[in-house]
Amino acid sequence: MTAEATPALVEGPAADPGDTGSAAGRGPRARTTTAYLRYVAGKLTGAAVSLLAVLVTSFFLFRLIPGDPVKFMTGGRPVSAQQIAAYRREFGLDLPLWQQFTDYCGKALTGDLGTSYQFRAPVLDKITEALPNTLLLTGTAFVLYTALGIYLGTRSAWRHGKLGDRLNTGLALTLYSIPSFWLGLLLIIVLSVGVGPVPGLFPTGGMESGGKEGFAYVLDVAHHLVLPVVTLVAVEYGQTLLVTRSALLDEMGSDYLTTARAKGLRDDLVRRRHAVPNALLPTVTLVFVNLGRTVAGVILVETVFSWPGLGGLFYQALSVPDLPLVQGLFFVFAAAVIVMNTLADLLYPLLDPRVGR
Amino acid sequence: MTAETATTAAPRALARQRRRAAAARFWREYRTHRAGLFGLAALVLFALVALTAPLTVGSDVQSVTDAPGKPLESPSLQFPLGTDQFGRNLLGLVVWGSRVSLLVGLLAAVLSVAIGALIGVTAGHFRGWYATVIMRITDWFLVMPTLVLAIALATVMSRSLGTIILAIGVTTWPTTARLVRAQTLAVESRPYIERAKALGGGHWHIMSRHVVPNVMPLVLAQTTLIISTAILAEATLAFLGLGDPSIVSWGGLLQDAREAGAVSSGDWWYLVPPGIAIAIVALAFTLCGRAVESVLNPRLGVSR
């Protein structure tokens, strides 16, 4: 997995020269570019150390488990001593712990995350199979809830204390306090199964009905995507809304806004061109920091809607428990958040020249 | 003799008087936050329900063997919220479940905030390599997906309430640690700390007498906010089947409902009450926490 994560990390600086160029084009001299590269190097080292720490943690954490993994594999069936020995040899459980660890690290560096007990397939294959589905769900939800949160947060802060603001914040806080899996189950009952006269409008789960091709297939997947995305957006947008709102409130009293108004700019322009861009700076970091929460939401929503993604896979692996798969997914989730956070760190000084220079 | 006790008692009485005045001032400010009052009222109500549960519903409500009704009955006069798949009274189960959810939420939050406060204060007080290492670890925990880590911990340990509390507590502390450290740094730059040092105050004296009382309000607000996170996390872990199956909790009830097929048969009355209970309690703690936060630190702008 590290083999996969590293290119993503390398992409950071590789994609950056263009941005740095444009930033440099705006005025600052070469010295700032050097400073930025030093900043990038620091952040990348930090991310690499974090990833390594996750790798080590995931190995030792799942060795704490009481009981013999072979028992989980055989599911309590009576097995002969030879079979147990064969299982132990197959999964390398007969080796001493340190040797298991060095093997695990060596293999992980080449992208081999072991073999799932449950599916008898390489963990990496299961993960790459499920990854696009999760990216589709998470990506759609992420774009929607960020946009919705920023839009509503801006409106809320601009008219703070008014009825609209109070309703907006109240609704956001309420949805934020609702367990995502419960909201998902309710949506399934009301909109998929149907209550009373309401017919089932959406499929109860899965990603496709099967047997569709071309455009019909795309429509079918979109139809299946509606409820999971609605659930995720509903529970996640509140955080973005509150962050945007308080960031914008912090800007509201600023002198430059008074200046902008004194110039005779329309209220709308003052908001869009002056206040919001500044308020977005802290929002960007927090949106990425909160990705950890979104990962949790994705696991639950995929479980509830039987979405064939990483979260659903994690739930299946947990119920066995299928240790290599749990371990691999744990690493993928943590790595995803670390990589996204690093990207946010790298982007931030480009957005805000006061940072890291 | 009497003069001596008067001189030693006077400063203490003065301190007590000041503390009472501060509490009164706090309450006067808090009263102006309507959402905070609503949250407080909801919490008092739920706390009463949870504390009086042994009197109102009794612990035999969770007994599977002598359940009073038939399985999966819809709400009726006898069972206002219907019955579960064993024929147990759902209203009773929801009331009984409040005890576990509140207990886990409180204890996990206290554990989390205690770890966070300890790390934050020491990292702010002792500078140098200790603070660097500790804050790197904190940052690492901060970016980890909390729930995934809690799930991993709950998976590898035995199924019990203690496990759930520990799993939530040791994964949610980093935000508190960061906040407390920032506050500690602010406090330590004040002149009275320099004075205390000049008078020979040691590390322990400065941390316990000057830093901790000053970060306490922040810690209080943070605890209230973390409790709501912890209650949601408990429900989530129980829903994923990582809780103790023999204990009734709101998350556990939702898992039971899902396993009993309440979703596909459209038995909404089975799912709605536990979820609403979770949402109300989590919301109430959030509202209280935000009100406390804005009273103590009006510049945060949370509920302006």
Automatic annotation (TrEMBL), chain B:
Record bears the keyword Signal: no
Membrane topology: Multi-pass membrane protein
Protein's cellular compartments: Cell membrane; Membrane
UniProt keyword Translocase present: no
Pfam families named in the record: BPD_transp_1, OppC_N
Keywords from the UniProt entry: Membrane, Transmembrane, Transmembrane helix, Transport
SUPFAM superfamilies the UniProt entry points to: MetI-like (SSF161098)
PROSITE patterns: ABC_TM1 (PS50928)
Residues passing through the membrane, by range: 35-57, 100-121, 133-154, 160-180, 215-240, 268-289
Domain ABC transmembrane type-1: 98-289
Family listed: Belongs to the binding-protein-dependent transport system permease family.
Name by which UniProt lists this protein: ABC transporter permease
Source organism (scientific name): Streptomyces lannensis
